[in-house]
Amino acid sequence: MDTIKIHPADNVIVALRDIKKGESVNYEGSSLIVTEDIKRGHKIATGDIPADSPVIKYGTGIGIATADIKTGSHVHTHNVRTALSERSSYRYEPAFSGLPERTGKTFKGYVRKDGRIGIRNELWIIPTVGCVNSIAEALQRNNRDLVKGSVDGLYAFTHPYGCSQTGDDHETTKRILASLVRHPNAGGVLVLSLGCENLTMEQFKEALGEWDEDRVRFLTCQKSEDELEEGRRLLGELSEYAQGFKREDVDASGLIVGLKCGGSDGLSGITANPTVGRFSDMLISMGGSTVLTEVPEMFGAESMLFNRCRDKEIFDRAVTMVNDFKKYFTDHGQVVYENPSPGNKEGGITTLEDKSCGCVQKGGSAQIADVLKYGEGVRKRGLSLLSGPGNDMVSTTDLSAAGVHMILFTTGRGTPFGAPVPTLKISSNSELYKNKANWIDFNAGDVAGGEETIDEAADRLLELVLSVASGEKTRQELNGYRDIAILKDGVTL
To answer: Which of 126, 402, 428, 450 is positioned for an S-S bond with 267, CB 3.0–4.6 A?
Structure first.
């Protein structure tokens, strides 16, 4: 296959390989002569597109032609503009059907005392303030011998916040950090504070609510004669506690998976994202749950999601989520369509609508069961929408705080970073998979060449997800790459 036409209504096709000027390419029983060099992932006009006419991909408009575009021509940023604006109106027109039930599968996870499931049994160090980041890192570095028995690792999640913040930013930091402390992938958590920061230990404990005193310990460095010695003692107690947990068979319905993309290219919406979407439907059919975020990368494709909301109340919350994010942009004097990135454009993505239509493919076809605010945890089985930005580190931290056990991260250009939870990288093209084998766990690129169907790729992905849930390490975990980032909007004192 040289090209693909995604939807019968499209007036463009997508190149599946680099195509030279003058080549004849075939698609769905038709052919055309390419009038200029076209890179893989970029679009070709299947007929003349007059200026001011819509460019159609995924069966919907992804932009407006800024000049007459001839058959066989390259369709991209030089001759297409976005059609988005800050103002949109939405109507609830339900369009969904139930998913067929699938035979359940199992994985080997950790069952916590409160019944929640973890897929890792790690020790986490959570600083409440950036002032103690170096102490957290020293505790991680100096106590690796405590990783033994069933304990899977020891990690510190540093950040620059927790002090000199006011209002919503202060609440956001507190909420995200408290949610991470509660995450079931951590068999034991040491909360590390300085002692004079805005986010006091008393405030943090209040935000945390009830906690298991065997699983969560607290250390205020200014009140300790030797914080490294006391930190080791507390981590030793947490290690002993965590070693009491062993993997056991757990039904796949207990699995919660986050859905994310980054460094996308023109194949992401054709190979990797639809594969993840099909996987999402499969997991939900088994009673499991998935979470889709990146609200700015829903702009232009939000109606595809809105009409899958289970009822009007969820639809209204989804609309509010999108409109609130648009207001966030305009309050800062930014247009809502300041996207895609230079790397996205190099890979063939032309407008935000183009990017968004590919992005939402990760959500499959399931009904939307819930809409979550930034920092809120998953409440319902099925597919949830989570408010959060597109930024990779901020959004994966948001997903982790929501309680996902792992994140499926699709990419066309590659990225090495990782979230607090296992971050499984999925390449949209085979070249990336071959060139960055130290980053990429799964190749969806064979879908583009016809070697594998989306269903076959999704079946293969499901088995890998269950293996990772049972303890197989992702490339990100093997590399030791883990970071968090927290959304900031206001004043720094």
So the answer is: 428
Q: Which residues of the chain have pLDDT under 50?
A: none
Q: In this structure, what token pair is assigned to residue 343?
A: 């790397």
Total domains in the chain come to 3
Cβ within 8 Å of residue 122, ≥6 positions away: 151, 152, 153, 154, 155, 185, 186, 187, 242
Q: DSSP characters for 73-137? A: -EESTTTEE----S-----------PPPP----EEEEEE-TTS-EES--EEEEEESSGGGHHHHH
The pairing of strands 54-57 and 60-65 is: antiparallel
231 within 8 A of 139, measured Cβ to Cβ: yes
Name the residue among 217, 244, 266 with its Cα closest to residue 428.
266
**ω into residue 340 within 30 of 0, thus cis?**
yes
Are 191 and 126 a contacting pair, CB within 8 Å? yes
The identity of residue 407, as a single letter, is I
End-to-end CA distance of the chain: 57
What confidence score (pLDDT) does residue 400 get?
98
For 43, list phi and psi in degrees, rounded to 5. Answer: -100, 150
**In a domain? residue 115:** no
Q: How many C-beta atoms surround the C-beta of residue 201 within 10 A? A: 18
Range of the domain at 75: 3-81
Rounded to 5 degrees, what angle do the CA atoms 487, 476, 259 make? 55
| Predicted local distance difference test score (pLDDT) of residue 29 | 86
Cα gap 155→439, rounded to integer Å: 20
Residue 226, domain CATH? 3.40.1400
Is the Cβ–Cβ distance between 211 and 181 less than 8 Å?
A: yes
* Bridge partners, residue 457, by sequence: none
pTM score over 0.85: yes
Q: What is the pLDDT of residues 39-68, one digit of tens each?
A: 999 999 999 999 999 999 999 899 999 999
How confident is the model at residue 397, as a pLDDT?
A: 98
**What span, in angstroms and rounded, lies between the C-alpha atoms of 420 and 407?**
10
DSSP-derived secondary structure letter, 422: -
Question: Which residue type, as a one-letter code, is found at position 391?
Answer: N
Q: Which two tokens stand for residue 62?
A: 């992804």
Q: What is the pLDDT of residue 339?
A: 66
What's the Cα-to-Cα distance from 145 to each of 121, 123, 235, 356, 463, rounded to whole Å? 15, 12, 11, 45, 32
| 184, 316: one domain | no
Residue 86 lies in a domain: no
- If asked whether residues 362 and 390 sit together in one domain, one would say yes
- Is residue 92 assigned to a domain? no
